[in-house]
Specification:
83 residues, mainly alpha
Amino acid sequence: MKSQEEHIAKGFKLDKKKMKRLADAIKVFEAKVKDELAIVEKAVAYDEAMVELCMESLLKSGSKIPISFPAFGTAKRVDHKGN
C-alpha cells in the first residue's frame, strides 16, 4: 500500500517544467477572465443607458396610460393590450 502511495506521489511532484506550464496556464486564464469581465461591464453600461433612454422617452411622451412591467407584477393597461 505504501509503495503505491509513493508511486502516485512521484507523479504529483512539481518540477520546474510543470510549474512553468501551470504559470502559463494561469496567465491565459487571467487574460480570458479579464476579457469576459470587460464584455460584461460593457453590456451592463449599455443596459443602463437603454433604461435611462427609455425612461426619458416615457416621461417625455405625455401618455397618461400606465405601462405594465410583467416581470415586476405591475397591473396591465385597462384596455388589456399590454405595453
